Task: structure prediction
Amino acid sequence: MIRRPQSPLSRYLAPTMGVVAAIALGLALARAEPIATREGLLPPGTELNEDVLDQPTELFASELAGGKRSYLLNLGDLLFSSPAILGGVARQAGISCATCHQQGSNNAKLFIPGLSRRPGTFDTTGALFNPKADNGVFDAVRVPSLRGAKYLAPYTHDGRFATLREFTRHAIVNEFAGPEPSPQVLDALVNYIQEISFLPNPKLAAGGRLSPEASEAAHRGEALFNKPFRRDAAMSCASCHKPDSAFVDHQVHDVGTGGWIKTPTLLNANFNTPYFHDGRYDGYDQVVDYFDRRFDIGLSESERRDLVAYLNAVGDAKEPVTRNSVQAEFDELAQFASVLETAIREHNRESVALTVDVVGSEWRELGEKIPPQSDTSVRGGIAERRQARAAVRGLVLTLRQVEMAVATNDFDQAAQVYADYRQQVVAAATDLKRAEPWSLFNPPVYEAHVTAMRRLAGLAQ
Amino acid sequence: MSRPTNIMLRVAASLLLFAMVAFAGRAQAADSLAKGAADYKPFAVERIGIALAGAKDLQAAVKAGDVKAAQAAWIKSRKGWEAAEPITGEFFAKLDEAIDAWPDAKQGYHAIEAALFAGKLDGLAAPVDKLVADLGEFDKQLKAPSFKFSPQGLINGATKLAYEIGENKSKGGESPNAGTSLSDMFENVEGVEAVYKIAFHSTLKARDPKLAGRIIEKIEDVEKLVKVKDLKNVDQPALKKAGEELAVLLQNSAAKLKLKKPAVGE
Result:
């Protein structure tokens, strides 16, 4: 018989635990010495821009029409925020569709070394997320906004997919190595994306014409936008960017930027930098300059300024950004968690597990926005912070109990625990609002926290 | 004696007997838990001892200007600390704040870690001295005969740590510069395991063997998930789920142990 050295823990174990201790001891001995690594799954220098203070505004067509969010929309929104539908590194690193398309918009600061040429761009055929799709070419493209996507077919920068459904499946399976999505998953995701509306723009009237709210310069630019080019009278800016058709023509064109590229919309484009399919330009002045040279339009300096003013007017939006808060997070999580009601009733294990994972993770993130006592960059509110963190963690564990009940086919118990969860949420709202002044939702607290992080990073340089 | 009086006396006697049995049962459980908590103390003493010894090695290495030895000593100290984490914040909040502050680390492990693992020893003497002093104080308070762990505090600490094991470390975790996030998790699991097995398992097994068995199984599940080559190989979603399930089971055990449901706030 081989005698193994005694684990330190086993010295303290009661003799009655012999069998259990032996199993645990075996496991303890079998484990390899952990290899310390300074690297996570994502390359150093990665910026996911998980900003907590301001978020792109997200509006849904059904709500704008005076209706409500459907179950399908909520499920789709949930899936969009779920790393579980992706595979490989994305799933492990907690990356979801919403990481790149924040609130259904873009993510202009996203930068992943090796995959991004500049912030806001991403190589969808790089090796990190799906080695099988690696084409050996560094061909990063900008992350597009999905606002108004239902009007913007075909999809991807080169328009290779006719439908959102095809594109969504492609993104999951080929770009991010996820498992083949079920029809239910695709239905929900497509429904969610189709619900994401363009943001209202008071400078635009019907038919894509400028309203009186736009500046005089913008109106002069509008005329130039529709004016035929001097070298080709059949063409103008508006012949591709059709004002009455969401400023697209649903075609691909070779405008000398590297192949056949889909006409992008100009709506809300002020908030979808950088520009061109590869994100080469930061501003409209560069875009106008490029096309002026490409098509030899012969714009004067003042005309260029007017066109830029026009693009700024067309690309504008009312309230493009929403300040994040405890309340905003609560509202979103209430919508997400509402999926459970139907999923439990229908004994839909997959949806219950998914919802518990996503909502639980979101609660965890919210909880981390309430700094613990050990984060000494934040002063005061220790009792409130402790209470709020305990409340959030309690919610995470109650949700997990729902999933555990479903796993044992006890749907009645799951429904009861979910009812308890809803009661707990009400109490947690009070706790979190009390702690909000000392949370990362408060700009000075956020700044102090980020400064501490930067200081730590500086020490490590 | 009249018949009704006789019946009343019998009922009263039965109630008294029931109360005495219940009280005796509760007292027995309390005794068992108190013994479990006392049995756990040597484990905590040992692990804090490792943390302190490592910190002293670190102090010597910094004085000697030996970066590699200092880094190794930091890791050694850290391992001891992480295994004791179920009790550090729960029973020694102020010292925990001084020793393990993050990210505003002007003192403690993380202030030292950032510079040390960038290969810099300049300016580390003072925070290292402070770490040794704080861990020394921790060790002293812990070893004091008058100090006793409460079963409630132990179940709180273990539940909280089970929850925290599931926090996503894929971006480097709490110790990205030292690269010990996986080791941290590993020691954390051992810390939770120690609290449960030493302080609670035998009592719970007598009261609810099924639940006791599920907790053991779940601890083993979590162990398997952190027993991997490196941080990149940790199945983070599975670990989060398993950590939460373990925390839920520990919460459920509290009722069986006649303890309050553990909060997992800090």
